[in-house]
Amino acid sequence: MAEKELQRSKSVLPIGTVMKLTDLTARQIRYYEEQELVIPQRTDGNRRMYSLNDIDKLLEIKDYLDDGINMAGIKAIYAQQKKRADDMKNESLTDSDVRRILHDEFLNISGFEPNSGPSLHSQRPLK
DNA sequence: ATTCTAACA
DNA sequence: TGTTAGGA
């Protein structure tokens, strides 16, 4: 069943197809790459080739944008998502630690609304 | 015909 | 983000 994941990971779609599938402009798609949100594979003459997983990621990003979250916020979300994945590997964490982390993440995400500017507040809401 | 990078009347 | 110039 891991074969399907391999297929979804195969980068075979040129940016033109991705544009049609996601309704995003080439400018946006390339910009998100600069923000390190979706890094497509390159081929022959330096052309971007995306995978189905990349498409999903882009659609996901588009949803976050619609919900009024900015680049910084989206980056934060994925950064936290990665942080979360790392935590799963550390059995050394206690339930209390995990809950503190999740609570911390929640506060940070809510701080990335459109108008709420770069006021990247909250850090240690030690209770 | 498509996509790429860089740059901004 | 849009758009365009100049290449590949």
TrEMBL record:
Keywords noted in UniProt: DNA-binding, Repressor, Transcription, Transcription regulation
InterPro entries linked: DNA-bd_dom_put_sf (IPR009061), MerR-type_HTH_dom (IPR000551), MerR_fam (IPR047057)
GO molecular function: DNA binding; DNA-binding transcription factor activity
Keyword Coiled coil in record: no
Pfam families (alphabetical): MerR_1
Keyword Transcription among record annotations: yes
Residue ranges annotated for the HTH merR-type domain, each copy included: 12-80
PANTHER family reported for this sequence: HTH-TYPE TRANSCRIPTIONAL REGULATOR TNRA (PTHR30204:SF65), REDOX-CYCLING DRUG-SENSING TRANSCRIPTIONAL ACTIVATOR SOXR (PTHR30204)
Protein name: Glutamine synthetase repressor
UniProt gene name: glnR
